[in-house]
Amino acid sequence: MAVKFPSDEWIKALSAQLNASEAYEKSARDWEGDFVFVVEPDDAYPETAYLFLALYHGKSPDAAMVASEDEREVEYVLRAPFSTWRQVIEGKLDPIQGMMTRKLKLKGNMMKIMRYPKAAQEIVACCARVPTDFG
Amino acid sequence: MWYFVSPEIVFGEGALDALDELEGKRALIVTDATLVELGLVDRVKVHLDNAGIEVHLFDEVEPDPSVPTVRRGVEAAREFQPDWIVGLGGGSPMDAAKAIWVLYERPDLEPAEINPFIRLGLRQKARLITIPTTSGTGAEVTWGIVLTDPEEQRKMGLGNRENVADIAVVDPAMAAGMPPQLTADTGLDALTHAVEGYTCTWHTDLTDGLCVSAARLIFQYLPRAVADGSDMEARERMHNAATCAGLGFGNSMASMAHAMAHVLGAVFHVPHGRAVGIFLPYTIEFAASEAPDRFAELSGLLNCSQEEGEKGARALAESIRWLCREIGSPTGVAEAGIDREGFEEQLEKLVEDAFNDTQMVTTARSPAHDELRQLFLHAYEGKPVDF
Q: Is the pLDDT confidence value at B154 over 80?
């Protein structure tokens, strides 16, 4: 059954996909750094949503929809309008290209994230495996 | 949404004359000692003198330029306060010049922080001119910067589209003295840019034609340029091909052959062009079984084969091996002089670092960890890829 995006259920489903992915585990086995994904309102979605995703050594030990950007202490905040997130999840926008064109805005240590492009790709692959209802 | 960035390009015989018209006060030439000895730096200085521009030389750039070298170059720039930085040489001096320029303008940044996701706000203190003396790297028109971290034996892919040069001077006379081996190595680099720029997942309508045009020129003129360095028609067409390929892949992306070559170069110091030329056919064969279409299309456009699908893609790989043999370049890692024991000792590092190279994200077929390991082993032995 499709899971609504954005929601607590959706980010937990993504976390489960990451934990089941051998490719992600290998590409991110040294990674330490949690994220908050900020879904900004646009014509297709009227609210702001905050999705917390813990990432540690190739696994995702925690995930939740949270009330604000600051509710959890994270190393990275990635923000984009709802429709841009939809393009990423559906595989229509490469997240790295999205960041290069600043459709996705990343706050955090760039030097570190540049060393894990494959892990970023695997996260998107896992997103695509979550059956998603965009409402 | 995507961008196409390019310097103003002055090309062809006599292109250096354009420097006579340059407006400015001080130019820092970033180059290497060999080019000073060969007299190529003097050729540029004459034109800067004509323009009334004071010149200071930073000639310490080594092959695979390191972060400490770039820091010394930044120090030289801070002392001299240039309003032009001139990257003169092959890829190493031009990449070093880009990094020196960025850090001269932005002293708050570390070299590893030069990334494509931020605004740099360049051109407040200086602008950049690139003048290639090899026909391959394309660095004169790309914004990518490759620096080596000597502590980690790792090449870092850096850059931001703002740090593309303002002017690229592509004068074939500057490459006319290349010896055959360097001509072959750099020509294969250009070919790999053209093929990967055309076949990577980030290719665009604006870059496809440049890549095809470059690949055609290279198949036609590289053997001539290697066989007879005084063949100025071949030299000029190769010089143009390298710039076309640079515009092509620089505005799309390179791919897996580059990822594998970066780590081989960092660990075993195989010249970059030779390394990408070795790996390119293997990566094409790897893609052929699952994502052959772009490779087969290119194969047809280059008249390598009119077959579709996997057969067409494999024909392209074989044509590239033919070209390598034609110009006396190795088609396997062992043939490049790396002993098996040393290679196997480093194999896990090669796989790990290639897996996490930025160029790996645009492959037509993404390898699993073990597949990448197998690819390295096949390339070592010169065995066509069949998985």
A: no
> Residue B358 is nearest to which of A99, A102, A114, comparing CB atoms?
A114
In a domain, A35, yes or no: yes
Please check whether residues B45 and B165 belong to one and the same domain.
yes
Residue B64 pLDDT: 87
Q: Which domain holds residue A57?
A: 3-128
Q: What CATH number does residue A92 fall under?
A: 3.30.1050.10
Number of domains chain B is built from: 2
B357–A101 C-beta distance less than 8 A: no
Q: Answer for the pair B128, B101: CB distance below 8 angstroms, yes or no.
A: yes
- Residue from A29, A96, A104 to probe the interface with B (highest B Cβ count within 10 Å): A96
**Which residues 13-32 of chain A have a CB within 8 Å of chain B?**
23, 26-27
Q: Are residues B153 and B202 in the same domain?
A: no
> In the predicted model, what is the mean pLDDT of residues B334-346?
97
Q: Which residues contact B366 (CB under 8 A, 6 or more apart)?
A: A121, B360
**Is B2 inside any structural domain?**
no
- Any idea what the CATH number is for the domain that residue B373 is in? 1.20.1090.10
Q: What pairs with residue B285 in β-bridges?
A: none
Q: What is the pTM of this model?
A: 0.93
- Residue B34 is predicted with a pLDDT of 97
Cβ <8 Å between B356 and A100: no
Whether A111 and B355 lie within 8 Å, measured CB to CB: no
Number of domains forming the structure of chain A: 1
What pLDDT does residue B204 have?
97
B280 and B167 housed in the same domain:
no
Tell me the pLDDT tens digit for each residue of A66-93: 999 999 999 999 999 999 999 999 989 9
Of A23, A103, A114, the CB nearest to B1: A103
Q: Which of B108, B115, B117 to mutate to test the interface with A (most CBs of A within 10 A)?
A: B117
Report the residue from B3, B117, B355 with minimal CB separation from A99: B117
Q: What angle do helix axes B309-326 and B180-199 make, rounded to 10 degrees?
A: 170
Is B110 in the A-facing interface, judged by CB distances under 8 Å? Answer: yes
Residues B170 and B24 in one domain: yes
By the CB < 8 Å criterion, does A54 face chain B?
no
Residue A134 domain flag? no
